[in-house]
Design goal:
The longest helix has 24 residues. Helices cover 45% and strands 17% of the residues. It is built from 15 helices and 14 strands. It starts with 5 loop residues before the first strand and ends with a helix. The strands form four sheets. It has a six-stranded mixed beta sheet with strand order 3-4-14-9-10-13, with helices on both faces. The protein has two domains: 153 residues, Rossmann fold (3-Layer(aba) Sandwich); 218 residues, Rossmann fold, CATH 3.40.50. It is globular and about 60 Å long. The structure holds pyridoxal-5'-phosphate. Pyridoxal-5'-phosphate binds next to helix 10 and helix 13.
């Protein structure tokens, strides 16, 4: 029945029979709001008062001088409420849920960022909220669990399988099947069954709409290239959409190269050669899987990029040659992060720093009369444990031990 939602031969909606009605309803509401300028205006208004839209476009003058090529501009999605572009998606879906008249939202979360954003939205709209999180991740991401619970969400640790993100997704689908009438599943990125890829991309397109206007105002012409990190692909598609019709603007997606593409410990789907076509989690794309279709273990220093699949919309754009893909390794990411902090006083999230790596590699090849934009999907504050650990900062370690000692007393 549901034929829409294909991008080339990628995408689709591979859902259990029992969810057909729920998806039909969701599709109907989404098709309605997509045509409704008043809905979009309400969304923009909400994001300008509750989040920080329009987010600024910052000219990174010191970095530009350091490399001596094109001017580097940074789109500041870190300045959103909850510190990343995720707010654009969850607040948009929140407005949609209100329109559907549902009162309960559920979500899956890996590192916890999407869980925090969803719990925030639920508190603001007065929805009941349940977050599914692998037990392993609950242990690793205590600060995010703390905030979700404080905002009134119920966090359910999932003890199945590897007790991480993919098990949390399965559990969230199980919940949805039993509570379809009252509940909306707030999917976190441009993946999963139709209409989620299109819907999430639509809400995130606000990034590109703003960025295009801002660069024309600041620089007087379009950028030569736009860089963004790619986990599921929502921040990348968000900014890319602003330049999709401008053939002279190269669009570059940067995936997690982890310990290197040859190591097998990475999450490079389109930049590497380890992924193959498959259907999982309700959609068709390039997955990191073995020849039996078992999903592989991925690795990245950035939890938000550590995912087996990638948006079917991006896979199509990759196949058509409109979006180019590269990978950044964990150690390259730490170097780019350090340089950006020292030169600009800006702390990118580990995820976002992947985009910076590739931009820094290429910017020297472009002339001073050109510009590039890096989409900074989020702020790095959340990564303090990982970053401090990676730098082996001894005084940070002392601080953590002293804190732990205090709690023992
Ligand atoms: C979640 C997250 C990502 C990855 O998600 P996409 O859907 O690929 O954008 C990237 N950056 C940050 C800061 C995130 O929190």
């Amino acid at each position: 029945m549901i034929k829409k939602g294909y991008y080339g031969h990628w995408g689709g909606a591979f859902i259990p029979e029992i969810l057909y009605e729920t998806f039909r309803e969701l599709n109907t509401f989404f098709e309605d709001v997509k045509k409704d300028q008043a809905f979009w205006n309400e969304y923009v208004q909400l994001m300008s008062t509750y989040s920080c839209r329009p987010t600024p476009l910052t000219y990174a003058e010191n970095l530009s001088n350091r490399f001596g090529g094109a001017r580097i501009y940074i789109k500041r999605e870190d300045l959103n409420h909850t510190g990343a572009h995720k707010a654009n998606n969850v607040m948009g879906q929140g407005l949609l849920v209100k329109r559907m008249g549902k009162k309960r939202v559920i979500a899956e979360t890996g590192a916890g960022q999407h869980g925090v954003a969803t719990a925030t939205m639920a508190a603001k709209f007065g929805f009941d909220c349940t977050i599914y999180m692998g037990e392993e991740d609950v242990q690793r991401q205590r600060p995010n669990v703390f905030w979700m619970e404080k905002m009134g969400a119920t966090v359910i640790p999932v003890t199945d399988g590897s007790r991480t993100l993919k098990d949390a997704i399965n559990e969230a689908f199980r919940d949805w099947v039993s509570n379809m009438d009252s509940t909306h599943y707030v999917l976190g990125t441009v993946c999963g069954p139709h209409p989620f890829p299109e819907m999430v991309a639509w809400f995130q397109s606000i990034i590109g709409i703003e960025a295009r206007e801002q660069i024309l105002k600041a620089f007087g012409k379009l950028p030569a290239r736009v860089y963004a990190c790619v986990g599921g692909g929502s921040n990348a598609l968000g900014i890319f959409q602003g330049f999709m019709q401008d053939d002279q603007v190269a669009l570059v997606g940067v995936e997690a190269g982890g310990k290197g593409l040859a190591s097998g410990e990475h999450a490079a789907r389109l930049a590497g050669s380890d992924a193959s076509p498959g259907v999982a989690q309700g959609y068709k794309t390039m997955f990191l899987q073995n020849s039996d279709g078992q999903m592989l273990d991925t690795h990245s220093v950035a939890a938000g990029l550590d995912y087996i699949g990638v948006s079917p919309i991006l896979t199509d754009l990759w196949e058509k040659g409109r979006v180019r893909f590269a990978a950044a390794t964990d150690s390259e990411v730490m170097d780019a992060l350090e340089l950006t902090m020292k030169k600009e006083g800006i702390i990118p999230a580990l995820e976002s720093a992947h985009g910076f790596v590739q931009a820094f590699k290429e910017v020297q090849n472009l002339g001073k009369d050109e510009a590039i934009i890096i989409n900074m999907s989020g702020r790095g504050d959340k990564d303090i444990f990982t970053i401090a650990n990676a730098y082996g900062d001894p005084s940070w370690k002392e601080f953590i031990i002293a804190r732990a000692e205090q709690y023992k007393k």
